Amino acid sequence: MLVDVPYFNILVEGDQNKYLELRKSLTSENMRYQRNRRVDTFDTILEKIHEFCIRGDEDDWKRCMVCGVCWLNGLLAINVKQLEILTDKSKSNINGVLAKLGYSQAQNGVHKKQLIDALPFLKGNYLEQRFWTIRVRPSYCHSPESSSGSEMASSPEIQYSKTPQPTYHFDLIEPPCSRDLKNLFNVIDMKIFDGMVCGESPNEIDFFADPTCCCPAEWINPMTPAQTLLSFA
Predict the structure, then answer these.
(1) Nearest by Cα to 65 from 5, 17, 124
(2) What residue spans define the domains of the chain?
(3) The whole model's pTM is what?
(4) Parallel/antiparallel/unpaired status of strands 104-105 and 75-79
């Protein structure tokens, strides 16, 4: 029997006939998308494919290869090219409905061993492996080493702590006094007269020539004429 379907010849004759019957059923008018029922229709399509593929015998993987769907412990492996042929649905249509069903694409590398174990034809066949993608529901997590078919545990939500920002009370911070400013670079010789702090006259220090020199003390803390006279005493 000559049929233009990849992998078709690996099926036994009985499965070949059933595949053709399945394809005829899935491409019939009854399986055309109806308004607001696209998800339900595609869910029915997956059920019919599962009924054809999974029978618990040694040829399960062959039927999965031809149909382009393989079930992996809660995950779903899809070969869109094969599924297009079987259902007469476009690639964008298939991907869109799978997304509406809650499936998202997972990293193939994490689950590659499961896929190859389920479909031995893919072992060492890296070109064919590229046609298969793993789909997973986001509400589930899965360990590749797990071989049980039990329902996967939900992934715990990560709680991020929020560090409070420091509060500054600027009214409690005392501004630097003139004495601190004058002693910043220790370039002005300070003199104390009657408890008053004063500096040298600007004529005695060429502060313009020294970029590290502080300005005259009078510029920072203006003094009365009497205090100015004391500073030059």
Answers:
(1) 5
(2) 8-136, 170-231
(3) 0.57
(4) unpaired
